[in-house]
Amino acid sequence: MKGVPEHAHVPVHRNVFVRNRWLLARRTVQFAIMGLFLIGPWFGIWWVKGNLASSTLLDRIGLTDPLVLLQSLAAGHVPLTAALVGALTVLVVYVLVGGRVYCSWVCPINVVTDAAHWLRTRLGIPPGWQPRKAIRQWVLAMTLVVSALIGSIAWELVNPITFLHRGLVFGLGLAWLVVLAVFLFDLLVSRRGWCSHVCPVGAFYGLVGRAALVRVNARDRHACTDCGDCYRVCPEPHVLVPALKPRAADASVVITSGDCTNCGRCLDVCGEDVLHFGTRFAKPS
Amino acid sequence: MADESKSSDRRKFLRQCAGFASSAGVFGLLLASYSRQSEALPSWAIRPPGALPEDGFSAACVRCGLCVRACPFDILHLAAPGKGITVGTPYFVARQGACEMCEDIPCVVACPTGALDHDLREIEDAQMGVAVLTGRDTCYAVARETGCRECYLACPVKGQAITMERHQRGNGRGYFEPTVHTASCTGCGKCEQACVTEEASIKVLPIGLARHDPAPAR
């Protein structure tokens, strides 16, 4: 241990639960949220009504997806105050916890695309089509333009997230076809193609996340051993660089990119505990 | 030298933007044409009370299903993909379960966006559709002169939306014909549900389909 700072590399016993603690937490939350929507139709316990597009919590708190509402506005409908307040509530929550927390902690399609990614890694399938990440922002802009053009909430006619969620809560129909298509796209066509490249909902929450309060930071970056584990596990690896390997030594340790989903996988895999959850104002330790 | 690389960078950037913009444009066109095709409301599906005219409805309805949950009689459904109805939008099928015309109109109250118009205060003012005697050749009252009046009895706007009008044939035989008064009919579908013939002889149709005057289609 000579020459190595005491706190930099402490070989701790990291069992399988420790190595996957945030993943387990995330899956628990994902399934719990899905469960909250399902105990109504299944057991008659109506704590939550509706679906991810709009819902009521305990018959009091209204929640509305801000992107759906934005498309509705673009389509020319001025929604009632209830929906506007609901969308604002959701926005405030995601500004606090991190925009793309929606993607990694709430969205049911995340389970599908993570499964595809797991299988793709197992089978050793090459990355395939890897378009620029910016394409999703163009898709986002296009959903608003098309909504305005056709006077309808355009993305809801294809959105696999709400197809799956609404399908599970209200009746699936052929919605499983869309879900299967996303799975196969991520498995065979494009590595992390849907969530990290195409999906305009993720792009929208990414914009929200630029102002997010809860952020991952690399405040122990001096302990980094360049093993690359975090890069390999991260769905958006480019977000790590500025905080972990900055050009200037005094650069912020906080991951500020809105693309970061706060999934916590990098915390899971880092054997040196370089990465931590904190606020956007975190300082190096 | 630096200038040159800068301008080539700029060129590259512009080319990239053009590429993105054109692929986004193609994507947009595809989405637009697809959505035009996938928006539909077949005549057997009826929107809940207070629903905006179809054009406005698809802009306003976020497909959340809160109206479905609010309905005490569970007659409303959200359209699953493959049903031939705009995906995720609410509807009911009169023959399977007609609107019970709750006085407090809970489905409208539950709608967070106003796709179901909150200005609808009296359920009797609802215009979900309009009943039409589509089967004069099958209707027991007309074709068989039986005096059946199930639709008349089922109608919640009693004696106003449907009346039994006496007619006389050339041979002197009389019969009663269920006659819909469109101004009073809410399109609830009770008559269609109650009709005793195998296929309902009286059906609720979308107002735009049933009306003959140039009133704005709903």
Topology, element by element:
The complex is a heterodimer of chains A (285) and B (218).
Chain A: H1 16-19, H2 21-43, E1 48-51, E2 54-57, E3 61-64, H3 66-74, H4 81-97, H5 101-106, H6 109-123, H7 135-150, H8 160-170, H9 175-189, H10 193-198, H11 200-209, E4 214-217, H12 229-233, H13 241-244, H14 265-269, E5 276-279
Antiparallel strand pairs in A: 1-2, 2-3, 4-5
Helix pairs in contact in A: 2-8, 3-7, 6-9, 7-11, 8-9
Chain B: H1 2-38, H2 54-60, H3 66-70, E1 77-78, E2 90-91, H4 106-110, E3 130-133, H5 140-143, H6 150-154, E4 162-168, E5 174-180, H7 190-194, E6 202-205, H8 207-210
Antiparallel strand pairs in B: 1-2, 3-6, 4-5
Structure summarized in a few sentences:
The complex is a heterodimer of chains A (285) and B (218). Chain A is mainly alpha-helical and 285 residues long. Chain A has helices spanning 16-19, 21-43, 66-74, 81-97, 101-106, 109-123, 135-150, 160-170, 175-189, 193-198, 200-209, 229-233, 241-244, 265-269; strands at residues 48-51, 54-57, 61-64, 214-217, 276-279.
Structure description:
The complex is a heterodimer of chains A (285) and B (218). The relative contact order of chain A is 0.15. Chain A has helices at 16-19, 21-43, 66-74, 81-97, 101-106, 109-123, 135-150, 160-170, 175-189, 193-198, 200-209, 229-233, 241-244, 265-269; strands spanning 48-51, 54-57, 61-64, 214-217, 276-279. With 285 residues, chain A is mostly helical. In chain A, helix 2 packs across helix 8 (160-170) and helix 3 packs across helix 7. In chain A, strand 1 (48-51) and strand 2 form a beta hairpin. Chain A folds into 2 domains: 21-208, no CATH class; 215-279, Alpha-Beta Plaits (2-Layer Sandwich). Chain A is globular. Chain B has 2 domains: 41-126, Alpha-Beta Plaits (2-Layer Sandwich), CATH 3.30.70; 129-210, Alpha-Beta Plaits (2-Layer Sandwich). Chain B has a two-stranded antiparallel ribbon with strand order 1-2. Chain B has a two-stranded antiparallel sheet with strand order 3-6. A two-stranded antiparallel ribbon of chain B has the order 4-5. Chain B is elongated. Chain B has 218 residues and is an alpha+beta fold. The chains are: A mainly alpha (285), B alpha+beta (218).
